[in-house]
Design a protein that fits this description.
2 copies of one chain form a homodimer.
Chain A: H1 3-33, H2 38-49, E1 53-54, H3 55-62, H4 66-78, E2 82-86, E3 94-98, H5 100-124, H6 126-141
Antiparallel strand pairs in A: 1-3, 2-3
Chain A binds a DNA duplex through helix 4.
DNA sequence: AATAAACGTCAATATTGTTGACCTATATTG
DNA sequence: CAATATAGGTCAACAATATTGACGTTTATT
């Protein structure tokens, strides 16, 4: 690879690293005030995106072991943020949902990120929003 | 916030999460073969970007404690990937540099990411590369 | 000479993740 | 129906990774 191009790509890697770190910083700060961590946010986030999703689906989404999910999930249940109820179609399956309290916290956490992205894309324009999204999709694609 | 807009923003958050995770997956796999972790990659990466940077600079860049950096850094030194030598201008300061072996490993790890981004941007075009970068910069900016 | 800075290191502690093993409840299948 | 599979919960052992606190050495600065 050409030297100059390599340096351009290095800048891109640096940007990706710092952007992601900055992006999670403010939610992390809020989470800390509640005595919980980033995993908890992820759990809340994905339940919010698909109310009623099963434990197995959540495991697959987060790519962690059942045992790793267990502790934070139990905490969230005990703290009254999420509820877990047997599915009607199969009573072995537990459907996960946010409580009102959980919805409130999830909103508080994710709104920081949504607002930030909204402001940036409002300035950048719809077309550039689409560009950014397409690039992120391509990164995910050929996993 | 309008409901539809909120859903668009949710997709953006999802993309960010999965893109970053995918992005680090392949280097993580290589690291594992060497019996080291993502921190080690970060250390190698930032030393490669600025040969001769000091321990303090590295600490500030990675935002970890001196003690947290210590173990992985010592490992890298013992494994012969990096060297740490007193700076001429101030012999208290240690200047960190990659050895040849370290350069090779750093290239192996980061090339996965550089090549991926290069391929994507080759397809997307220079203008869209600039768009993506500008957006990532804005995310970092108002930290 | 006193103080400060850069770095190294040990210790105690907390957190978070992994794998393995095993249990219950419920579905599915031969 | 009996055997088996699936979804989920939980305990235990272990590894890793981070934090804070404390303290030592070397070298600069004041």
């Amino acid at each position: 690879m050409e030297k100059n191009r390599e340096e351009q790509l290095n800048e891109i890697l640096v940007l990706f690293y710092f952007a992601y770190r900055t992006f999670t910083k403010e939610p992390d700060r809020i989470l800390e005030q509640h005595g919980i961590q980033r995993v908890h946010h992820r759990i809340l986030f994905f339940i919010a995106r698909k109310p009623g999703l099963s434990v197995n689906e959540l495991l697959a989404t987060l790519e962690v072991s059942k045992q790793a999910l267990h502790a934070p999930m139990r905490q969230l249940i005990e703290m009254g943020y999420i509820k877990s109820e047997p599915a009607e179609y199969d009573r072995r399956v537990r459907e996960l949902r946010l409580t009102e309290k959980g919805e409130k916290l999830e909103k508080q956490l994710s709104n920081v990120q949504r607002k930030k992205m909204d402001a940036i894309f409002k300035e950048a324009g719809v077309k550039n929003e689409e560009v950014w999204k397409e690039i992120m999709k391509k990164i995910i694609e050929n996993e």
